[in-house]
Design a protein that fits this description.
The complex is a heterodimer of chains A (316) and B (329).
Chain A: E1 3-15, E2 21-33, E3 37-41, H1 48-55, E4 63-68, E5 71-72, H2 78-84, E6 88-91, H3 105-116, H4 124-134, H5 151-163, E7 169-173, H6 181-198, E8 201-205, H7 209-215, E9 218-223, E10 226-232, H8 233-238, H9 243-251, H10 293-297, E11 303-306, E12 309-311
Chain B: E1 6-17, E2 20-32, E3 37-41, H1 48-55, E4 64-73, E5 76-77, H2 83-89, E6 94-97, H3 111-122, H4 127-140, H5 146-149, H6 159-171, E7 177-181, H7 189-206, E8 209-214, H8 217-223, E9 226-231, E10 234-240, H9 241-246, H10 251-258, H11 300-303, E11 308-312, E12 315-318
Parallel strand pairs in B: 3-8, 3-9, 6-7, 7-8
Antiparallel strand pairs in B: 1-2, 1-4, 4-5, 9-10, 10-12, 11-12
The chains are: A alpha/beta (316), B alpha/beta (329).
């Protein structure tokens, strides 16, 4: 299967005054085949959003390569980059702050086409109506303002705007975490239906394991700027190998009676270390119940441990 | 049976809005026993947080007003209390923790000072003793190096640590009732698990009753003894947590549970949806508020508010399609 997106050794570092450097993303590798979905999970500060922003060219790239079907996204600049933006679009977490409150919905959805000069200007309003229908909204709603919509409807508008340029890749950053569960199901089903119908490729960031399991073909687990495990979705839940993945899955409350437990799950103590003063060895070692001396001295590399499953741990 | 710590009966709260009167809470009744954890679940705007604010006497008046019912806390009706008496209870016998640990702590005082202030407001102790109590509470909630952290300002702590400080403050006066409004929504799942086990340990140790307000059914499964499901200002189902999760009676509860993506479900199937959206509280009809979205609705659902039907001991749902003792297939 050919890869639409390949990310190699991506690094995003931010200087923080004279106190050092935040290693927000520190050597991330993955690929996404055409028409598939990769999920990235991890705690706040693990670098999942920064990875997404770097791929969107909305965060400065310190090092590494991003390739979108032959186009070196990480290297192109200026007009080339601007034109390439039609091919990758993003849906943001907060459906309130990501839509301009002073624009009508029709204009919000039309704007990417205007800015990137897509199609004949006279056809664009028809296209806006098509897009609204595609995301399950009535076309006549285009003359309303964002505040007249509910959270779920706004997320549909954000999705219509992302679809406006007919992108190949859509990056979703926590697209349903601000929504109530009944509405969340509607939006998740819509996201999957659009992929089935249009063969879109998705990068899907979420902290909700149930959601990623439902949406993604493959899942990457990030911890402090690095991927610690990556595997097909079913595999990572059936047989998580990295101690952090195991802790993450154990910490998520489950509804199924056979997995239900009372009074909080297996404990992962403490907080991640500071992304400025990183430990020399494995970044998870300070919280890992299995850590040995080697873990504190030598950083483990990602290795394949079973078909399609890679993990960065000395003990696997 | 022990006397409940909190016994809410037929509570009604109205809000005056430009579009008319909104029945924000309508006929809400539940009890919580010492050491028990009741979860109140529902979507945004269903009245979960308003229930909590009513107990604390914090309903914004105007536009809101408690128009009926009683809130019995250890036998006293809080709805009838004078504001000065309510202030003695609030933060003392009844404590609350909020969703956002950053905005609910004061950024210009140290964590220790804020906890000590709560202690001194409710107990007649010296500043030194109050500070010692603050450090002791920080230790009790699992904060490492509590002597040091007592001198830290909120911004110097992580989200999980700040929520622990909030819990330490809430528990510093040994409340009989703790109201936790979405205490882990802003936190990562691993930190959420830590906070949950902390709350669970505390209620078993101290007998503090907890009302947990959440939209997360996973949290209910993990924490709750009992659960009340709210929709459009009413409790539409309540019962023991396992009973409600495993054999939900109300079509809304069933829809809600079915729509949650699960780790161990078939990922190829689409999620069952509840069509439509929550109605505005100002234009609720006479009948069941869920009727427009309900797959099982019949004409009679329009006519009147459905009464609670008992499904088993302590488990009931407000749906006329339920017959006593049996669950709709």
């Amino acid at each position: 299967m050919s890869q639409l997106l390949s990310v190699r050794d991506l690094k995003v570092h931010f200087p923080v005054g004279n106190r050092g450097t935040v290693h927000a993303v520190d050597g991330v590798d993955f690929t996404i085949p055409h028409g598939k979905t990769l999920g990235i999970v991890g705690e706040s500060g693990s670098g999942k959003t920064t990875t997404a922003l770097a791929i969107m060219r909305l965060a400065p790239i310190t090092g590494g390569e991003i390739d979108l079907d032959g186009t070196p996204i990480s290297r192109i600049q200026g007009e080339d980059l601007r034109r390439a933006r039609t091919r990758f679009q993003m849906v943001f977490q907060d459906p309130f702050s990501s839509l301009n409150p002073r624009d009508r919905v029709g204009r919000i959805i039309r704007q990417p086409m205007d800015l990137l000069g897509l199609g004949e200007p006279s056809d664009r309003d028809t296209r806006v109506e098509e897009l609204l229908q595609q995301v399950g909204l009535r076309p006549e709603l285009k003359s309303l303002y964002p505040h007249q919509f509910s959270g779920g409807q706004r997320q549909r508008i954000g999705l219509a705007r992302a679809l406006a340029t007919r992108p190949e890749l859509i990056v979703f950053d926590e697209p349903v975490s601000a929504l109530d569960v009944a509405v969340q199901a509607q939006v998740l089903n819509l996201i999957r239906r659009l992929q089935r119908e249009s063969g879109l490729t998705y990068l899907f960031i979420s902290h909700d394991l149930g959601v990623v399991r439902h949406i993604c073909d493959e899942i990457a687990v990030m911890y402090l700027g690095q991927i610690v495990e990556r595997a097909p979705a079913a595999q990572i839940f059936a047989a998580p190998r990295h101690p952090y993945t195991q802790a993450l899955i154990a910490a998520a409350p489950s509804l199924a009676p056979e997995h239900r437990r009372r009074g909080g799950g297996a404990r992962l103590q403490g907080d991640p270390p500071s992304p400025v003063n990183l430990p020399r060895g494995c970044r998870f070692a300070s919280r890992c119940r299995l850590a040995i001396d080697e873990c504190r001295q030598v950083m483990p590399k990602l290795r394949e441990c079973s078909s399609g499953q890679v993990v960065a741990c000395h003990l696997v | 049976m022990t006397q409940p710590v909190l016994d809410i009966r037929n509570l009604k709260v109205d809000f005056m809005t430009r579009r008319g009167v909104a029945h924000v809470l309508d006929d809400v009744s539940f009890t919580v026993a010492p050491g028990e954890l009741l979860a109140i679940v529902g979507e945004s705007g269903c009245g979960k947080s308003m229930t909590a604010l009513s107990v604390l006497g914090l309903v914004p008046t105007p536009p809101g007003k408690v128009v009926g019912g009683s809130i019995l806390f250890q036998g006293r009706d809080l709805a009838q209390l004078r504001r000065s008496d309510m202030r003695k209870i609030r933060g003392g016998d009844i404590a609350m923790i909020f969703q956002e640990p950053m905005t609910s702590l004061n950024p210009v005082f140290t964590c220790g000072e804020q906890i000590a202030e709560a202690v001194r407001l409710h107990q007649n102790v010296s500043p030194g003793a109050a500070h010692a109590r603050a450090v002791e509470m920080l230790r009790a909630v699992g904060i490492p190096e509590p002597e040091l952290r007592a001198n830290a300002y909120p911004h110097q702590l992580s989200g999980g640590m700040r929520q622990r400080v909030m819990i330490a403050m809430a528990l510093s006066c040994q409340p009989r009732l703790l109201i936790a409004d979405e205490p882990t929504t802003a936190l990562d799942v691993t930190v959420q698990a830590q906070i949950f086990s902390l709350l669970d340990e505390l209620r078993h140790k101290t007998g503090t009753a907890i009302v947990l307000i959440t939209h997360d059914m996973g949290a209910v499964a993990e924490m709750a003894d009992k659960v009340a499901v709210m929709y459009a200002g009413r409790i539409i189902e309540q019962g023991p947590a396992d009973a409600v999760l495993d054999s939900p009676g109300h079509p809304y509860t069933r829809g809600l549970l079915a729509s949650i993506p699960r780790v161990y479900a078939d990922p190829d199937a689409d999620l069952p949806e509840i069509p439509g959206i929550v109605p505005a509280l100002t234009d609720l009809g006479r009948g069941c508020a869920f009727e427009p979205r309900c797959p099982l609705a019949i004409n009679a659902c329009h006519a009147a508010q459905p009464r609670h039907v008992a499904m088993s001991a302590n488990h009931s749902a407000a749906c006329i399609r339920l017959k006593t003792g049996e669950v709709l297939a």
